[in-house]
Amino acid sequence: MDKFDKAIINQLRHNARQSVSTIAEQVNLSRSAVTDRIKKLESNRVIRGYLVLLSESQKAVVSAYFEIQHQCARCADVVHVFHTIPEIISCHGITGEMDLLVYVRCESMQRLHEIREHIDAQDDIIKVNSPATSLRSDHQVFSTDSIKTHVVLSEWINNHP
């Protein structure tokens, strides 16, 4: 990745919807060169996607961390399940009895329950704990289990804005 790729990425970070012409002007390259570079950055997975930032009023109202234990030899063998759930914001491999720490934001406690049930129903999942749930309105944390400290070993999903 050279200085032009970095400049293009910087422009896209500020506004991913700006035209290729505008980016080309800013980085002093032709439109075709910028288009080719963006395609190459996407195909090489340097740019993994683009996201929409919602206004505060449109954001989810319930968030929770799920600690998940699975029976697979590697976390990579089970995380495909989480890619199908858009409310999963992040998924990390962790130390300790549990294998994964999954952060979920959704619109209701009912949806949170549905997500947990879906994860728990997967063949390779042994156990799902949800030690803390927060409602956005007052950021009060409701705890059903003791919260533990984990060391993050790997990152499998990161959809944080």
From TrEMBL:
SMART domains reported for this sequence: HTH_ASNC (SM00344)
Organism listed in the record: Shewanella aestuarii
Keyword entries, A-Z: DNA-binding, Transcription, Transcription regulation
Stretches assigned to the HTH asnC-type domain: 1-62
Protein name: Lrp/AsnC family transcriptional regulator
Gene Ontology biological-process annotations: response to amino acid
GO molecular function, one term: sequence-specific DNA binding
Origin superkingdom: Bacteria
Cellular component, GO annotation: cytosol
Keyword Aminoacyl-tRNA synthetase belongs to the record: no
Pfam families listed in its UniProt record: AsnC_trans_reg, HTH_AsnC-type
